[in-house]
Amino acid sequence: MKIKFTLFKQFMVIMGLLTLITLAGCLEDEPQPNDEDEINLEAAFSFSPETPKIGDEINLDANASFDASNTGFEILWELTEVPEESESALTNATSIETNFTPDKTGEYTVMLTLTTDDGEVTDSETQVITVMPGGYVELSGAIDSDRVLENINEEDASLVDYLVIGNVNVSARLTIEPGVNIHFQEDRSLSITSSGTLVAEGTETDSIIFTSANEAGETHWKGLYIASASSENSLKYVQLNYAGNSEINFSGTNYKAGIGVESSGKVAIENSSFMNNSGYAVYIDDDGGELASFTNNHLEANENGVAIWVNEVEALDATSTFVNNSSSDVEIFSSTIDESVETTWNGLSSGSAYTVSGNLAIQGTLTINEGARFQMEEDVMISVTGALIAQGSESNQVEFTTADVNQGLLWKGIYVNSADGRNQLDHVAFSYAGNSEMDFSGVNHMAGLGLDANGKMSITNCVFSNNQGYAVYVDDDGGQLETFTANTFTDNMRAVGLPANEVDALDEASTFTNNANADVEIFASTYEENKTTSWPNLAENATYRVSGNVYIVGDVTIDPGASFELDENVIIDVSGSISAVGTASDHIVFTSSNVSGGLLWKGIYISSASNLNEFDYVDVSYAGNSEMDFDGTNHKAAIGIESSGKVSVTNSSISDNDDYGLYIDNDGGQIENFANNSFSGNSKAIGLPADELDAIDGNTTFSNNSFAEVEVFGSTLADTKTVIWNALAGDAFYRVTGNLNLNGTVTVAPGASFEMDEDVQLEIFGAFIAEGTDTDRITFTTSNVDGGLHWKGFFFQSANSQNKLDYVEVSYGGKSEHDFDGANFAANVGVNAGAQLSITNSSISNSSSYGVFSIGTINNIIGATANNTFTSNVDGNSF
Hints:
21-stranded parallel β-sheet, 44% strand, 879 residues, elongated
């Protein structure tokens, strides 16, 4: 039979609007034609009664079906499945309304099919109708006196004992006996009010059942609502299925739930199962709902398992099972553990996880047992101002991670602002945190674990991976790492960020792999005066990244093998002491964090005279970004020693630094020990005053330092000093850039070579003994022969009988006149009145004036026994 339906008035209004829109569209340029209208059918039907019995007429009504195109359609009803031996049939298979009468209990599957007149388009809907046997009692309305629901059909457990056809409100004691089977019509509920009590206690062999009257049709009842705080409220050996049709009205937010425990409610749930519930199988309101116990339960195929607040999580046991719950096993929503509360959370069975959907505040004491897994929703944070003790094991870690790795969502992290000595993370896995910045006392940062100024934590045997910002961040206003041992950091943006005061807490066993920006970042901070600790070598070539200026006021020791990469223009400022002692096989390294980008750090500045200041087997490179603020002239340097500073440098490599590799301020900086170093690729290898020149050894090597190997700047050698100026290794030379006043006693070793800047003078008031050999001559010459520049020359003022130039070459002096007692003259070597000098076996050449000019006492320098050579001196060889 063909059925033609008329459109409703509303549909005509919609079509009118669509027509207007279409007409408006026609005004646009080049409209696209639509050759045929889309045909849209939607099959839908209802049935009554909701819970039929054998012999009840079941009415089917397809008036809810929809034909958007008004083209007309044909109807076909079918009973596609019926109980075995049923002979039930439809009265009319093609009418808009029809019916059938069931003759057997069980499920009847009804299919409605719509087909357009031309047969081109079809749509269908299928529903399952459950026909119940008789013999049950219907329930609805109030139960206001004590009542026991007995097992009516005790002989046949499959039969329904009670059918809830209307909402039931219990204000008395309701006891449900073992084996009772209660079915609920759609959206019906059982509510235990504040004055009621529910005791539903089955047995292992006789469960109590709460379920839908039409499980096969997946029709849901509303659920069990408990607002009573009675300590007798109990569900044991209960099966609760197919609830959650609509939201329960809680004091807080409303939710769908199989069992909903109100803020005033309390219940014990043991040995029970929850299946196929929408919303939550069990919901505990966060305004105070209580779980007296939750033991040996099974939750399967629910939308969510349990929803709970922090104070009640401890009721959950480690043996209840969770299987295929689509959204979460146990959801912990935003809530607070109060200061006076001490609670313990168990690991759920078989790797099931807690889903944390809102921020948690731990003001009391929380202990987390091994195996507990937490999946954190986006930007959720756990804030600890009480105590957090998360203790897993090697085989059963505690885990904190994101609730959705596939979507790339990150949680916020764990924030600790408590100095409680019990705070501990042991065998904990942290991943995918750092969604947004934490609010620290200092600068705000993203972190997996953030320790604020008042925070303290022990971290042992933990794994941190795939965190944004920092995996672990310790605030520089006072955050503390109590213990840090055998942790693993992989694929984080930065592994650890901490102030200088906390670096000593790190160990050599923790490993760092593929952390994008830093393994351990030391940010701008001060290593305090009362600290005397060591900074360890990180495992497997991991490095420290120093991102801000570090002030060493205490006494720090750097362990062999430690490697530091410093950001642009960062300085390490030492007013306490620094002892960086590596080994031949384990050098300590200080270098730039971006060598390939050509960035330079500032250097190490030492203003303390501590005997502990030492660099042994240390590599320092790519420093000298900007000048250090010395008491004297400011300069750039990799290692800068202030006038009050002192340092030993041995067996070390100083390379590729702008300006000086090592700079000693001429107002008093000191080199304690200096031996067996190498300087390469610097602008100036060493710069120092005359007082410290004797510290430079003959074994240190110099290569490719563009301006000078050892620069001696204008300075005075104290009259208390008796020193030896060594010959530098290879072809290295001293470059003297300013006048030297030598009041003490200087011995120049054979082979030493000095290049003097323009018009520089060496003025001798003490003793000057330059005694080379035939094969190792001492040389004093200009620093720029090719440029034709001349230095001033020697000017001897002292009558010391030790003054000697033997096997010495002096050339290209005589730039300007020496200040003689009488008339002034220029000369490579000038000897004033009252002064004394011996010159033998030497070469005096290329003076722009005299070779030697003396009004003092000298030997017969031009005699054969003196064995001197004079060449190309403009005004004469001697006077």
